[in-house]
Each structure stands twice: as structure tokens, then as C-alpha cells.
Amino acid sequence: MTAVSYTAPHTLDEALRTLADLGAAATVVAGGQDVLPRMHQGLLRPSHLLDISRLRGLTAVEVAGDRGGRLHVGALVTHAALAREPVIRAAAPLLAEAAAQIGGGIQVRNRGTIGGAAAAANPAYDLPACLVALDAVVVLAGPRERRRVSAAAFFSGAGRTDCRADELVLGFEMPPMPPRTGWAYAKLKFTEGGSTVAGAACLLTLGPDGRCARASVVLSGVADRPVPLALAAERLAGEPVTPETLEAAAAAAPGAVEHPLEDVLAGGAYRRAMAHVMAAEALARAAGRARNGGGA
Amino acid sequence: MTSRVHLVVNGTPHELEVDPSQALVHVLRDQLRLTGTRFGCLTGHCGACTVRLDGRAVKSCTVLAASADGARIETIEGLAADGTLHPLQRAFWERFGFQCGFCTPGMIMTALEILAEHPHPDEATIRRLLGGNLCRCTGYQTIVEAIQAASEAAR
């Protein structure tokens, strides 16, 4: 076995210098919930482990008054923290609801981080679709500059993102939820601890007239990256929110999944069908919450 | 290259040299000979390697030992005090909350956190929060009963 080197810097500058020197030869690890299982399975053979779990300032969760009430979530915030933080539950309850459903048990939620879930871009992970549904921006730090990429553009395939080899994910920014916005994350898994077979993240905003002002539905677990249902959003915009209009929107799901995942859990046709069911469930729950005043 | 780590395990401080790619479970078992913590799948699924790290349940096969530097670790060996079983251990014993016993340490270490967060959980809550621990004997019924019995005993 080749010797693995390891550093656990306390400052972002040190971490970025290591990345600038080693680039793709460095494996970034934080909570370890993605990296360690892949190491044990021989899917990942790091030569250098860059442990960013000691970096300061990446566990913050705050609503910035000076930036129009945008929510900032640091990359090292754990799934358990997302699920219980009052600030998250108030400003982005979709994230809290999805984080509480992440498989593998409380142990995985205690260690796994939102930054890791995004950077790993595993199609079975739940948070990427939520970040896209929330119109989140991914904040990246590189050797020369920081840049912001929309979550929709960040995820480019299974295990592939827009994050370059010399960059780190610092955190995420999300616009405040408008009033009368409901949310839901619906997920199909075969066991409590199991992996996502199909999921749907949804935000639905009602206008003052009670009609749908805006809807956003994004599928998880069914393709190599989150799948936004543009047609569902179109079908609902300006329409009254009824079982019929919600169903018409959810029916956009199967057709939006061009290349469904096929694996030991489920075939492509089944995933397409379940995408429809999950989209319908997420839309119905989000609409119900919006009618009850939503989270804002 | 090795990393020097300082761990406080069941109240005892240790200075250890670890391979940086080594998981905490291997350091606990091979260096400290605390073999009550099991390694089952090494993929984060089974939960047999669950320990508490700074008070939180974690799967020690998914934690780098180097990353745990400075942490307080609790394993199954640390629960009994002066030969007296911890109430959860006693409940698992009395309710037959194990068959082959392989998953038991992980079940109990997870149950500690379940009861810390939900002192009197209903059955559905226990089953949901045990989702990260697998019993290959499928003896879940008595495991759930044991955790409920331990919560009742604490009333």
C-alpha cells in the first residue's frame, strides 16, 4: 500500500495553497461519509487527504440583513444541524426536511456535511436537488478569486461538478422564500437507511389571488444530476392550484428524465414512474403548506 | 507518513501514531484492543462500528482516525461502571435484544443518542432512528423492546 499523506489546515489560505500545489492529487475530506466508504471499497485511492473539517468559519448559518435577507449556509454544516437549526427551519425548511431524510441513520447525519453532499454530486444524494429548487448559489474559493455558480449549473454529472481541482466549496446562498410559499421533499427508499430511488424537491408560491405565482420541482435520484421540471413550472404558473393542475404538473416528470439511472435498486422505467409519484406527492404537500401560509 | 493523534477513549487519554488513511474503527480495535466495536461492512451501511465522538453517534469506519484528533470517544467498553451494566445493556440482556450479538454494541451506542434526544420514544421513533443499524439476524423486535424498556426504567 502506498503511503498516504494528510494535512488538516485551520485556515482557508493553507487549504487553498495545498490544493494549488497538489490539485487533483489531493482528496478533500470533511465529514468522511462519502470519501471513507469509497476508500474502503477501493473506488478511491487518495495519495493526499486534505481534511478541511478544522477550517474556521464554514459552519455558519445566517440570514444576512444587508444582502436582502439571503440565507448563507457554510459548507461544513452537518445534515443533523440542517434538520434542527431554527434558522434553517425558518428560512429554508426544504433543506431541513430533506436533511432529516438522508439515509444511513443518525450517525451519517451527524458527520455528513452539505458541502460534501454537493461536492460529491452522487445522484442518489438528496441535497443537490433541494439546492437547485431553492435557486441556491454555490460559493467557491480558488487560489485567486472567489466565484459564485448557480446550483443548476454546478451539477454536471454523476460525481461531476463545476468545482475545479484547485477550488473548495465554501458554502451556499439562497434567496429568501416569498410569503405564501410551501415546500416539500418527497423521497422513495426501500429501507429506512437505504438509498434514494426517486425523490422530488418542491417549492410552490401562491399569489394574493390564490393562484400559483411560481412553482419549482426538481427530481433527485433518477438521473446523473438533479432534473428541474421546467414544464411543471410552466403548467402551474398563473393557474389555480387544484388536484387537476397539480397532477398535470407532476405528469411532466417521466418525460423530463431523458436518461434514467439503472442500477441494482431499480430500472429506468420504474424510476421514471416513481419520479411522477414523488413529484405529485411533493407538489401536493407544498401546495397544502402554501395554503396554510407557508414558511415565510 | 503517520499522523500523531490524541484521543480520549472512555475517559483514558492516548497518544497514537496512525496511518492517515486509517479509519477510527481499526485504531480502536487494533491499537487499543477495544474489540467491542465491530467492523461489519466498511461502507457506512451496517452501523456495527458505531461509537460516540464528542457525544454524537458516528460510524467509526467512516471517520479518519487522524480527523478525530483531540476528540472524546466512547465505546461499548466504557458503558459498564464497576461491573454494573449500563441500563441499556441491562435492558438488552433482560429483553433478549440480541441473537448472534454482532450488531449489539452498535445498536446500544446508537440507542444512547436516541434516548438522549428522545427520553421516552415511541416505537416508530425508535425504528426510524435505528435506520442506520442493521441486524442480520433480523431480531429488531426485541431490540426495539429493549430500548423502550430502558427508557421506561429511567422514568
What does this molecule look like?
The complex is a heterodimer of chains A (296) and B (155). In chain A, 35% of the residues lie in helices and 24% in strands. Chain A has 296 residues and is α+β, with helices and mostly antiparallel strands. Chain B has 155 residues and is an alpha+beta fold. Chain B contains five helices and five strands. Chain B has helices at 24-31, 87-94, 104-117, 123-129, 140-153; strands at residues 3-9, 12-18, 50-53, 56-59, 72-74. The longest helix of chain B is centred in the last third of the chain and has 14 residues, at 104-117. Chain B starts with a strand and ends with a helix. The chains are: A alpha+beta (296), B alpha+beta (155).
Shape of chain B: globular
Compute the number of strand runs of chain A.
14
Reading the helices and strands of chain B in chain order gives EEHEEEHHHH
Overall strand count of chain B? 5
Assembly annotation: heterodimer
SS class of chain A: alpha+beta
Spatial extent as radius of gyration of chain A: 19 Å
Q: What's the average pLDDT of chain B?
A: 96
Strand content of chain B: 15-25%
Distance between the termini of chain A: 54 Å
Shape by Cα distribution of chain A: globular
Largest interface comes to: A-B, 29 and 34 residues
In the predicted model, the low-confidence regions of chain A spanning at least 5 consecutive residues are: none
What is the C-alpha radius of gyration of chain B, as a whole number of Å? 15 Å
What do the pLDDT scores of chain A average to? Answer: 95
